[in-house]
Design brief:
The chain is of the alpha+beta class. The chain contains 17 helices and 8 strands. The strands form 2 sheets. It has a 4-stranded mixed beta sheet with strand order 4-1-7-8, with no helix packed on it. Strands 3-2-5-6 form a 4-stranded antiparallel beta sheet, with no helix packed on it.
Length: 597
């Protein structure tokens, strides 16, 4: 869930002039890299620049240069995203030719630059040929999908077999061993089987399953996600798998707060005790975030000068505290008796109008600060990555008002390696868990509280719950589509995890309602699925999160890779670490050990 630097546009320049040659065998390619040889047949020097199509309005960066006459030069290029190349004369400003190409991992390519009949700039021809076919980049992922599909099928077969266990016992009793048992023993077996089928826990298993699923994805992407770019955080705007996890957790926190505090209030737990409980849990989560997740023994002695103040657990703790405080001081401590009013279809919203007013004021504050706060040497309302983006006009404006507020209040105690640093060549720090984004984290948690209210208001009315979930998903999805204009970079408010933009919150709220609704239908309503294996992690989320963060770089969870030229070993390592934590959570589940704060 934290931020990680990407190697989207790292490249290694190997410059040569004239006819000097670099053998392909001398180049050691790694994951997401390909070899490009510029083959020039021009009578003058060439200059090749590039930009990634994922980088929004980015300045072209130097890739290779050749001085005088025909020759060739080899360079290593990045493969995750399409690259646009432009070839110019070394001593001229005019572009001779240009093209866009998606290079593939470990492939060897040649960029041919050939003159026309009159050797004029307008007659220059550029094209790319494949010298060595690339690796099957997604073959490891396909193999993993097939293996997981097979395991899922086998796992799904177990419940059907277990459901037949009671019947099998009774058949064996009657047919094979009837003379050895009494009628009383037969009745005990039948009653035991009936009790086991009818006995249900009051705990919402789908919520634990959703939490465990989110945690599983988070562990996998934090362990590298096999090195695939879509399992890592996007450079700036847009979404990847890694960008989905944290808002899901915040949504789940909101739902859990609503259900848990409502249950305690119905039991008569005084408000002072609730305040002590929420304060204690907030402080513990904050301390874990500061002292454990934020610090490693490899960093040397802890120093306040470089200690990062914001963080994932710190944001989750603050969000939890605000949501819990809202529920504790809410005038509605219990669900009112079911009475028919004209506003009954929206009573779960209207009865909590003070909370909605507070959330609306928070969102108005986020909008005003984001779009109206003057930022020195930056345009007001800027939401870009800065650096070489936006045609290089705002190199020191990364994050706009969000970064400015963090630097003003926290100084340099923020994140210096944001996900945009590699692609956008930024030089300013930016913290994806900063202060301004925490406002929308509270809004995201409040959306999760709305799911909890739906469960409480429409208890045992599963059809109504599913309809409400669908309506909320549609409303939030439409809001996200309008704000982003269904584009990555051109919307009114782009979907941006780094900023926790309003469109991002709406989009994640939509997916949260959909996923929780699907799991509620499959796990709690139809009981087609018991939530395994995700429910094991969901019951011990704090332990798994802290454990995988502290031990992730140690054996047996990871090891030094020997084969770094493909995704195979990296994917196996990421999957192994994730499965190992699933197994640990399963053992703890069997032992009934649940770490709670």
């Amino acid at each position: 869930m934290g931020s990680y630097s990407l190697r989207h546009v790292f490249f290694f320049l190997v410059l040569a002039t004239g006819h000097s040659e670099i053998s392909h065998s001398e180049v050691m390619l790694k994951m997401d890299e390909a070899l490009l040889t510029v083959q020039s047949q021009m009578s003058y020097g060439l200059y090749v620049v590039y930009t990634s199509d994922y980088c929004y309005k980015c300045l072209y960066q130097p890739l290779a240069s050749m001085e005088g006459g025909p020759g060739h030069v080899s360079v290593v290029v990045s493969t995750p995203f399409t690259l646009t190349l432009k070839v110019s004369a070394l001593n001229g400003s005019s572009v001779l030719c240009g093209l866009s190409y998606l290079f593939e991992e470990a492939g060897h390519y040649s960029l041919w630059v050939k003159p026309g009949e009159a050797d004029l700039a307008c007659n220059v021809t550029c094209f790319i040929s494949v010298d060595k076919f690339p690796n099957s980049t997604y073959l490891p992922l396909l193999a993993l999908a097939l293996v997981l599909g097979l395991l899922t099928f086998l796992w799904a077969s177990v419940p059907f077999l277990s459901r037949c266990s009671c019947t099998s016992k009774l058949i064996n009793l009657i047919c094979c061993h009837g003379s050895q048992y009494t009628i009383e023993r037969e009745e005990e077996i039948i009653e035991d089987c009936m009790d086991r089928d009818e006995r249900k826990s009051s705990r919402l298993k789908s919520l634990d399953t959703f939490r465990g699923f989110s945690l599983t994805v988070m562990v996998f992407v934090n362990y590298g996600g096999g090195g695939y770019w879509f399992f890592q955080h996007v450079p700036w705007n847009g979404l990847s798998v890694a960008d989905l996890v944290m808002p899901w957790f915040v949504f789940i926190i909101g739902t859990s707060v609503m259900l848990a505090f409502n249950a305690m209030q119905r039991k008569g737990v005084p408000r002072l005790q609730l305040l002590r409980k929420m304060t204690w849990r907030t402080v513990v989560l904050m301390l874990i975030g500061f002292c454990f997740i934020n610090y490693s023994p490899r960093d040397g002695l802890l120093s306040w000068s470089w200690l990062r103040i914001p963080g994932v657990l710190q944001r989750l703790a603050f969000t939890y505290f605000v949501l819990s405080l809202m529920q504790t001081i809410s005038p509605y401590q219990d669900i009112p008796p079911k009475q028919i009013h004209w506003w009954s279809p929206v009573q779960d919203v209207l009865l909590y109008w003070p909370e909605w007013l507070f959330i609306l004021l928070l969102e108005v504050m986020w909008l005003c600060v984001t779009f109206l706060l003057p930022v020195p040497n930056c345009p007001t309302g800027y939401l870009g990555a800065g650096g070489i983006g936006d045609n290089g006009l705002y190199p020191n404006c990364t994050g706009g008002a969000a970064a400015y507020v963090d630097r003003w209040l926290l100084g340099d105690n923020i994140y210096w390696y944001p996900t945009c640093k590699a692609m956008y060549h930024t030089t300013q720090p930016f913290d994806p868990e900063g202060i301004l984004g925490t406002i929308n984290s509270v809004v995201m948690g409040f959306i999760g509280m709305q799911a909890g209210k739906i469960f409480l208001f429409f208890r045992k009315r599963n059809y109504s719950i599913m309809i409400r979930f669908m309506v909320w998903a549609i409303i939030l999805g439409i809001l996200a589509a309008i704000l982003s204009k269904c584009t990555r970079d051109e919307g009114f408010i782009p979907v941006n995890k780094n900023l926790w933009s309003l469109s991002y919150v709406a989009c994640m709220g939509c997916t949260s309602f959909v996923l929780l609704g699907v799991m509620y239908f499959a796990v709690d309503i139809k009981e087609w699925w018991g939530g395994q294996p995700f429910i094991y992690l969901g019951m011990n989320s704090i332990l798994v999160y802290v454990g995988h963060s502290l031990l992730g770089f140690y054996f047996p969870f990871s090891w030094e890779m020997r084969y770094q030229d493909s995704h195979w070993e990296k994917l196996i390592q990421s999957l192994w670490g994730t499965v190992l934590w699933l197994f640990i959570a399963y053992l703890l589940y069997r032992k009934r050990f649940f770490l709670k704060i």
